[in-house]
Specification:
It holds the Pfam family DMSP_lyase. InterPro entries: DMSP_lyase (IPR031723), RmlC-like_jellyroll (IPR014710), RmlC_Cupin_sf (IPR011051). GO terms for molecular function: dimethylpropiothetin dethiomethylase activity. This protein is of the alpha+beta class. It has a domain of about 170 residues: Jelly Rolls, CATH 2.60.120. Strands 3, 4, 5, 6, 8, 11 and 13 form a 7-stranded mixed beta sheet that branches. Strands 10-9-12-7-14 form a 5-stranded antiparallel beta sheet, with no helix packed on it. A two-stranded antiparallel sheet has the order 1-2. The two termini are about 35 Å apart. The protein contains 5 helices and 14 strands.
């Protein structure tokens, strides 16, 4: 169990939630909780504004590096040319609200390459979940999350292509689903088993791309290791929820 760390705003401690205090997530605690700074509201707001502005600059730098890393990683992969043809140009950025999820604890220990870059910058990214407990159960949500870097919701705006990272914890199954967008996955860490259409689950090692045509059912499951994979989406509604099939 990790220890919660108090930060002070002039007088009095500021308590942080457990969600932001994974062992290597302590940088989140630099943003003061204005509501708990009784009697020091104006000073705390000024400090929060400075911290958020600094954090936003860091986020934008990280977004650019990750977007460039994704583009470089998939360049030359079969089927990737159409995705990269729609890749956004220019330096436009969209503000994000950083937030980690329980699954992010499995990023700890990842080092080197694009996966290491994601792990080091995880606290500055906005991690999301498409599904709720009513879809796949609460246990699934503890071991599932994704963050978009390029797309309708990511810090690098695009209406034609989406790209980001999917993280699955160990011993979890992502049930069969399908969507209108064409998709490419490229595993960056861990060995997972993938299923496409009516085929049986088969292991896919790090660095081997998986391509899903529109509306092709697919599923994945992990074993003893977590899996981090980059993804690309193209075509259709880039923010649409997948159709659950299994």
């Amino acid at each position: 169990m990790w220890r919660l760390r108090d930060r002070r705003c002039r007088k009095g401690p500021i308590r942080r939630s457990r969600r932001s205090c994974y062992p290597w997530f302590h940088r989140l605690a630099t943003l003061p909780n204005v509501a708990e700074c009784s009697g020091r509201r104006a000073a705390c707001k000024r400090r929060a504004g400075r911290a958020r502005r600094t954090g936003l600059e860091c986020d934008m730098d990280l977004a650019g590096r990750l977007a460039a890393g994704i583009r470089a990683a998939v360049a030359g992969l079969p089927g990737a040319a159409d995705f990269l043809a729609d890749w956004p140009e220019g330096g436009a950025r969209r503000a994000q609200v950083p937030g980690v999820l329980p699954v992010c604890r499995w990023l700890e220990g990842m080092a080197g390459g694009l996966g290491g870059e994601v792990a080091r910058g995880a606290v500055a990214l906005e991690w999301r979940q498409t599904y709720g407990a009513g879809d796949f159960g609460a246990a699934f949500l503890e071991r599932y999350g994704w963050t978009e870097i390029v797309g309708l919701r990511g810090p690098v705006p695009s209406e034609r292509v989406a790209a980001g990272f999917l993280l699955l914890g160990p011993d979890v199954t992502y049930p069969a689903h399908a969507h209108e967008a064409a998709e490419i996955y490229l595993p960056l860490s861990g060995v997972a088993w993938w299923q496409k259409g009516d085929a049986a689950f088969a292991p896919v090692p790090v660095g081997q791309a998986i391509h899903h045509a529109p509306w092709v059912p697919h599923a994945m499951r992990t074993g003893a290791e977590p899996m981090l994979a980059l993804y690309l989406w193209r075509g259709g509604d880039l923010a649409a929820k997948s159709v659950i099939l299994g």
